[in-house]
Amino acid sequence: MIMIPESALRFGFDNGPGGAHTSRTMMLSELQLLLAACPSPATYAEYRAAILEENCLLKQTATTRLRSLRALRELYSLDRRVLIFRALRDLWDADAGAQPLLACLCANARDPLLRSSADLILGVAPGEAVTASGLSTAIVEAFPGHYNSAILLKIGRNAASSWEQSGHVARRQPKVRSHARSSPAATAYALLLGHLCDVRGDFLFGTLWARLLDTPMSLLHEHALAAHQQGWLEYRRSGDVTEVSFRHLLRQENASPLK
Question: Whole-model pTM above 0.85?
Answer without folding.
Answer: yes
